[in-house]
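Two records follow; treat each independently.
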Amino acid sequence: MSLSQAMRVSSSGMAAERFRMDIISTNIAGANTVRTPGQDAYRRQDVILTVENGGVKIVGTRKDMGPLRPVYEPGHPNADPDGFVYYSNVQPVQEMVDMISASRSYEANIAAFNSARGMIRAAMNIGKM
């Protein structure tokens, strides 16, 4: 792999991790939404990535169709006849773990990019002598 290819791979990895962090932020923002008549509560989203040409390609997102979180709140205006309110299936603690993972992956891609850039600069300096 050439140094320019390494920089492209790192760059695509940074773009993918930034997208993951954006989706995770959206998940956290929707964590306390509830199901209302005619509209489901926010459903957690996952990022779909694939490998393409030695880099990472963002395919899109998919909704997590796991069960909503039922909470017994009989006085809530959106409670069902049994007194349950159905909240989003987002688990904020898991989202924060995913956010830390995405952030560290982003930082690793920056380090790899900067290493390749440093090697290119060093090679150019050798040619000047």
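The next record belongs to a different protein.
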Amino acid sequence: MTAADLLAASGRFSIRPGLSDAELAAVEHEFAFSFADDHRAFLAGGLPFGRGWPDWRDGDRAALRERLALPVDGVLFDVVQNDFWYGGWGPRPASEEAALDVARTGLVTAPRMIPVYAHRYLPAGRGAHGHPVMSIYQTDIVCYGNDLEDFLHREFGIGPGSGGEPARPTVPFWSRLVL
């Protein structure tokens, strides 16, 4: 069963008809990203809605933009408020403003993270699939499932899951922050 089938069969969430290819393309164009292949298939199979689920069809566009910005904004918050610094950015500049500039520049190369549910994300990118679903709250990052199906099992107890194998981080930059 696919992740969309598992979610629908559970009966635990309201599911609207999936997004059409034209709707998916319109969302991708509007927000300037491409869904990963498995995320795209999930949303085409049925659009979950209600608390926590992003409503890509009828949702408030400003709220969707905020959710898309949260992973990067959270890292930048931690740079300023919690002295976070990623070693891959080189030495931390002395001034807060310079540190933010370096962090912003470094985050440009990090894969864009797309909300799946609440603060659970998958990386953007056509041709990509099978990445873990990651919980991202500032720099507190945890893998919440090896893929969408495993995420549904771990988050909601739906489906068989991956047999207890630990989720493996695979997403450049974000995986380096996994606890």
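Discussion point: The chain is about 40% helix and 15% strand. How would you locate this feature using only the token line?
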